[in-house]
Design a protein that fits this description.
- The chain is an all-alpha fold.
- The chain folds into two domains: 1-32, no CATH class; 35-140, no CATH class.
- Helices cover 58% and strands 0% of the residues.
- The chain is built from nine helices and no strands.
- The chain has helices at 6-14, 21-27, 38-50, 54-61, 65-72, 81-90, 95-105, 115-125, 131-140.
- The longest helix has 13 residues, at 38-50.
- The protein is globular, with a radius of gyration of 17 Å.
- It starts with 5 loop residues before the first helix and ends in a 9-residue tail after the last helix.
Length: 149
């Protein structure tokens, strides 16, 4: 997956004149977010890089393949931020990858000043991808589980 960081695109935009906007948009189209499809394509690209199947992600995240597919393709929209985080953890996403997925889905990124998010960040950064182990970490610190059980 080719990728340009937001900072790279920001640097390019600093020098773009209105007459050069069409060229900029055409040259960088593959790095731009398509609001409806960006989340799905991003999830798919990251999982393909990690050689992880979407159906396995649904299973590890504790959702049915049918429901998970509707969420990932945004056929259905969820307000459950933990569900998106569970999908990312099940897909072995890094902190940056998780934040990008959350942002593409229209949700707030994991925030270091939020104690519960801090626990999740530590789990992700230490490659703790077992949701029950993460639940234990959260419960140990008096916080709600990430699983729905």
């Amino acid at each position: 997956m080719q990728n340009k960081s937001t900072d790279e695109l920001n640097d390019l935009l600093e020098n773009v004149k209105p007459t050069g906007l069409e060229t900029y948009l055409k040259d960088n189209e593959k790095y731009m977010a398509d609001e409806k499809k960006a989340f799905y394509y991003y999830m798919k690209d990251v999982l393909d890089e990690k050689n992880i199947k979407l159906k396995d992600v649904y299973s590890f995240a504790g959702v049915t393949e049918s429901y998970g597919s509707k969420i990932v393709t945004m056929e259905k929209h969820t307000k459950d931020r933990d569900l998106i985080i569970r999908l990312c953890i099940a897909g072995h996403f890094s902190w940056d990858e998780t934040n990008r997925a959350l942002k593409l889905y229209g949700m707030s990124e994991l925030y270091a000043k939020n104690p519960r998010d801090a626990v999740l960040i530590v789990a992700i950064n230490n490659r703790v991808f077992n949701l029950y182990d993460i639940d234990e970490m959260l419960l140990k610190h008096g916080m709600d589980r990430i699983t729905t059980e």
